[in-house]
Amino acid sequence: MSSWYLQCDDDVIVSSRVRLARNIDGIAFPSRLSDDGFKSLCGLVKDAMPDNLGANVGKLNFIDMNLVPDTEKAAMVERHVISPAFCENSKNRGLILSNDESVSVMVGEEDHIRIQVIMSGSNIDECYKIADNIDDALSDKLKIAFDKRLGFLTECPTNLGIGMRASFMLHLPALQMSGQINKIADSVNKIGLTVRGIYGEGSQSKAALYQLSNQITLGISEQNAIDNLKSIAMQIVEKEKEARESISRIRLEDAVLRAKGTLMCCKILSSEEMMSLLSQIKLGISMGIIDLPKELPVRLMIEGQPNMLQKKYGNMTYDERDITRADFISKNINNEV
Amino acid sequence: MLCEKCGKNPATTHIHTVINGVSATKHLCQFCAANQNEKQTSLANMFSSMFSELLNTGAIAPTKTCDICGTSFSSIAKSGKAGCPSCYSVFFDELVPYIKRVHGSTVHMGKHPQTNAQPTTLVAVQNTKDKKIEELKQALKNHIEKEEYELAAKIRDEIRMLEQEEK
Questions:
Q1: Of B85, B104, B115, which is closest to A153 when you measure between CB atoms?
Q2: Fewer Cβ close by (within 10 Å): the C or N end of chain B?
């Protein structure tokens, strides 16, 4: 299997992700842990982790974060393998990673152990199954901090209980354009879920990409939390599809074809402009306006990120990067036309 | 109608406010409205502010500490973060009302870990010197904010001394 962002061919559901927060009994939480404490923590988790998770996931590798160059760390954030907080505070931390990067276990993030499973499209059940298996394997060897009343004990009380955040990344350009997204955000908040824009400031998103996730973790089972999330996601997908049909066809075609033209011919491209144009391209492919591979826009959105480009083409100034990005994206689109 | 704030994009969000009986309406575009929303606090911040409220009323003795990691309740209240797993049993009664406010429940309904693993003996808390430096840095910040520069300079020297000893 290859990385999640290479195979996002769904019209609306870009990816599915499950994160489990776990801590080891008897060890201070990360914000109060010493540098030596992190070293011991990494040793404990490394020893407890199975080497191989079987056919679906394969081999797991332990990575000492002290040895990872800054560009690669930032590129991992861009590929959603680690969190921005983990990238910033990575001294003496460890990362356990599967070859296809669908499984990543951050050791010493906000909690001792953060198990993450990410997959393209609508695969939340599979993500949870794998995360749950890893959790079982770890708790076989480590005494996981748990209280019968409060569930899994986490550094921040907002994660108590199941310690799980399940989420979908959704592409919602039509709901964003029609201004319905804020209304949806308000109403899902009332039922213990949250919607926030990614790749953008506050609740809006340049690429119309939104993360829908569960907020409540105590008083609900893992299965119920996932079922709620799925049922709300399906309703949002339906609303998005309805909204897409109600956009004026000629205006939509105009926007999509302009986006394609710009990406094919541009010489300088900022990451914001890239995200917003690729979002139009993704919408255009879904609506049958242009004929490009369905997985292309999301792949380019990730590969065109600043540190992903630097990793591929070496260190660059800000201006050089925008030129390199334009070249990279236009070649990729021209190759497919 | 264009956004009142940037004057560039069409206004899609309309905010009505009534302050002292005077009503006003703001018309913002999606981007300016989003900026406005950003000012809202995150859940973790909200949590710590809820605690602080309680501390200020004097309902809790801020000196009570966790016997495993030494974290005081006032420190949990300030940061919104527990010090170690045991903090939850030490401060259970104090924490429960706030956990209930966040989650609407205090009853775990999910998975129970199946384990025969032995308890971990390692309690790797920050050594006392690190903690002292951290406290001094906080004090330094407070003095600078209050423009008490003489006191701040003294503390700065103390921090330097401790940091050099560590090296």
A1: B85
A2: C
